[in-house]
Write a structure and sequence with these properties.
Elements lengths: L9 E3 L2 E2 L29 H7 L3 E9 H7 L18 E11 L5 E4 L10 E5 L5 E9 L6 E5 L25 E8 L3 E20 L5 E10 L11 E3 L5 E9 L6 E5 H14 L5 E2 L4 E3 L2 H7 L7 E3 L15 H5 L6 E5 L2 E2 L6 H6 L6 E8 L2 E8 L1 E2 L3
Antiparallel strand pairs: 1-13, 2-4, 3-4, 3-6, 4-5, 5-8, 6-7, 7-8, 9-10, 9-12, 10-11, 11-14, 12-13, 13-14, 15-22, 16-17, 17-18, 18-19, 18-20, 20-21
Length: 383
């Protein structure tokens, strides 16, 4: 797929400590009781913070620094082998943010916050209590991870939670509140701003050679700092409209959040299948623009053109895929999914991300000058 994305100094927002490198990266909650509905009065955001803050946690990676020092120097260069071993004491080596969405301790955070598979993880509650945590699963398509709080704390089962709002309803200029573990040490730091844009597509980098293409993002000018990754972006009802994920370090006041609807779909997938399962259509495509329209002599200047790579010998329709079964053909232009038109800011990938495996969708397709509708049943992606 060929797409134009912002390739600037955009980094994920987790932060490392100890011997790790400093990373300057940029629905299932109970109904809100009537008494917790927020009234925004006198220009104060305090009621938003009071409602949301108890459910925001720090997510920390822990390692035995003795063992780590035997393997790496401060800058990651192998050191002279040493005979001492770690003392078994775990220390914090990186830190991010998360938020609780179920009373038994299911936490949503960014995938890059829990990317170190050799580390152990813990969450720190608002009152400073540190509890063991387990990474349940990470999303193959988006920067989303699910973490479960463990332990014998009597509050598990009655933990404060946040609810998802419908991110499709947000508008540019809406006020927002961000809460997160800024710089890995200022827990539950609260900042405010507005929604600056929607549908952003960026390439975010860890600064350590790891990058990820992120699409359909919310842009905000609420201050987001290293360590804020995985924290909630809230509306004035204290509901989650996004998860803070990346910042543009070349600018001031440009941060990005994953929309709540994308997160909710991942949560529902895990709850239904016991793991994060992504659906797929099974087409290779390029977005249609004026140049593509002229080159391929198309009737449309929007949508996506189903086309393979002749040099690589790949077809535009994956063999055995839902697209092949539904009758999608090479050269088709997919214009819409369930009546939602595809565009430069709403790609086919964006559209499919909001569905679950087994869902039936209707594609509006242009073929040989005609507009036809094709029903397709989504299957699990193996990629």
């Amino acid at each position: 797929m060929f797409a134009l994305v912002s390739v600037v100094s955009i980094f994920f927002g987790a932060i490392g400590g100890g011997l790790s490198s400093w990373l300057i990266l940029s629905q299932t909650a109970e109904e809100t009781p009537a008494e917790t509905v927020i009234n925004f009065e006198n220009g104060s955001y305090n009621s938003v913070w009071e409602k949301a803050s108890p459910a925001v946690v720090s997510v920390v990676a822990l390692k035995d620094l003795g063992d780590l020092a035997n393997q790496f120097s401060f800058f990651g260069v192998p050191t002279t082998p040493q005979t001492t071993e770690g003392d078994g004491e775990l220390s914090k080596v990186s830190s991010g943010t998360g938020f609780i969405i179920t009373a038994d301790g299911l936490v949503v955070t960014n995938k890059h916050v829990v990317a170190d598979t050799a580390a152990e993880y813990a969450v720190i509650l608002e009152d400073g209590t540190q509890l063991e945590a387990e990474v349940l699963d990470t999303d193959t398509l988006n920067d989303i991870a699910l973490v479960q709080i463990l332990g014998e704390d009597e509050r598990i089962g009655d933990l404060p939670t946040l609810e998802f709002a419908d991110s499709d309803e947000i508008k540019i200029g809406d006020p927002v509140v961000a809460i997160g573990n800024a710089l890995g040490e200022y827990s539950n730091t609260t900042t405010v701003g507005i929604i600056s844009a929607t549908g952003r597509e960026i390439i975010a980098s860890s600064g350590l050679g790891v990058s990820e293409n992120l699409v359909n993002l919310i842009q905000t000018d609420a201050a987001i700092n290293p360590g804020n990754s995985g924290g909630p972006l809230l509306n004035l009802n204290g509901e989650v409209i996004g998860m803070n994920t990346a910042i543009d370090t070349t600018a001031s006041g440009i941060g990005f959040a994953i929309p709540s609807n994308d997160i909710a779909t991942v949560v529902l997938s895990y709850q239904e299948f016991g793991r994060i399962v992504r659906p797929f259509v099974g087409v290779r495509y390029i977005p249609v623009n004026a140049l593509v329209k002229e080159r391929f002599q198309l009737d449309s200047d929007t949508g996506v053109l189903v086309t393979g790579d002749q040099q690589a010998g790949t077809s535009g329709v994956v063999e055995g895929s839902p697209a092949e079964k539904a009758g999608i053909l090479e050269g088709d232009v997919i214009l819409a999914v369930d009546d939602k038109e595809l565009s430069s800011t709403y790609s086919l990938s964006n559209a499919i991300a909001g569905y679950l495996v087994g869902d039936v969708i209707t594609l509006k397709v242009q073929r040989d000058g005609d507009i036809i509708s094709i029903e397709l049943t989504l299957e699990e992606s193996t990629q």
